[in-house]
Amino acid sequence: MLGSLVSYSKILEIVGDILRVEVPAGSSENEAAPRFNDLAVVENRNGTFSLAQVIALKQDSVSLQVFRGTKGVATDSAVRFLGHPMEATYSSNILGRVFRGTGEPIDGGPSLAEDPKVPIGGPSVNPMCRILASKMIRTNVPMIDVFNCLVESQKIPIFSVSGEPFNAFLARIGIQADADVVVFGGLGLIFDDYYSFRKTFEDAGVFSRTVMFVNLASDPIVERLLIPDMALAVAERFAVEEGKRVLVLLTDMTSFADALKEISIAMDQVPANRGYPGDLYSQLARRYEKAADYAKGGSVTLLTVTTMPGDDITHPVPDNTGYITEGQFYLHDGVIDPFGSLSRLKQNVIGKITREDHNQIMNTCIRLYSGARDAEQKQAMAFELSDYDQRLIKFGGLFKDRFMDINVDICLEDALDLAWKTLAECFQAGELLMKQELIDKYFPGPPAPAMTSPQVPAVGGSS
């Protein structure tokens, strides 16, 4: 390979996991100039090798981030540039396998050294090759399927805070979503979380259609930056070359942003908001924009977890993410909040490829649940409650138990029928303010009574 025989041994400095080596311009006519994101091999004094990536070019020096860390790397080490960027293994053999941030298998399975490789971190697909998102990904989670549909090619995060069951929720979506391939990327996971994801996929019988890229908390932080690119490169290939409907799950993008911050500090870059690099938005957008529905192929749908430190929605990571993505699922107190969550693409599928009553059920349930919240506040302040307020509170309790609990597993049509049943248990048909033809068709029980004006007694007289 070009450049594999030429090495550079003048190490200028080592800061954290960043190594800077002198590379004189035009030092060899047969040597290809190092390029941004190219790989390099660092040969240590004891004969061991470390893989590194070019992250900065400046006059006669090149900065590299060493994936396994710079422990044991001395200033008399030698650097050889490989002339190509990081690559991920792509073939049907990677299904059911687990890889680390450098692309090496870590599950003890057979070697994949002879399988084809694909470069990572390429540009987003040409918009002319995309089609409008119009197909739904069913998850059997009613707070998603009924109220904020997940649409193919959508890029959407789960906003949450530490301590919430967002990883367990993400794993449930991975095993229940009607996708052909699931590509999972774990960033800075503790071993218990990694094992939980893997066991969940295996126990559900979906591991054979799953590919896992995992960076543990004990792994070098620089490998964390490669996990999203690895996962998305593989997902694109499955979608474009095999026409698969691919769901990419990434957790946690705040760990990815923190890794960016640590690298930028080591390189003495000027920090921006709260110490994060100035290109945080661009770095996040490069990954999120990989989601696409291909005109000649399948689709890539991207669902991520973004934790908000201190439950602060103005934190730079969720704040920038909100400008890039097409909505968010807001997970707090163990439930998906119907008011903080939003899917901007749901109108492309609701009532078009779903049942005719979907839109009316969604709007009516949210309106009545909002009324239930108001009635609960009145009750907490010791105000007198009307009969209608009591029924609103009853509906709010049933709605939380039957729909908002993230452990509920029910298909869309059954969820719509359950919504009609819940409404019928609390309200008269005429109180729903819904289309009469839908009430006649779906409302359980007798037809809606005619609406009458309330009788108000005359002042000072008999009624």
Automatic annotation (TrEMBL):
Ion transport found in the keyword field: yes
Record-linked CDD domains: V_A-ATPase_B
Matching SUPFAM superfamilies: P-loop containing nucleoside triphosphate hydrolases
Domain called ATP synthase A/B type C-terminal: residue spans: 351-442
Key words of the record: Ion transport, Thylakoid, Transport
Domain ATPase F1/V1/A1 complex alpha/beta subunit N-terminal: 31-83
Domain ATPase F1/V1/A1 complex alpha/beta subunit nucleotide-binding intervals: 142-332
Membership in a protein family: Belongs to the ATPase alpha/beta chains family.
Protein name: V-type ATP synthase subunit B
Organism (species): Cyanobium gracile UHCC 0281
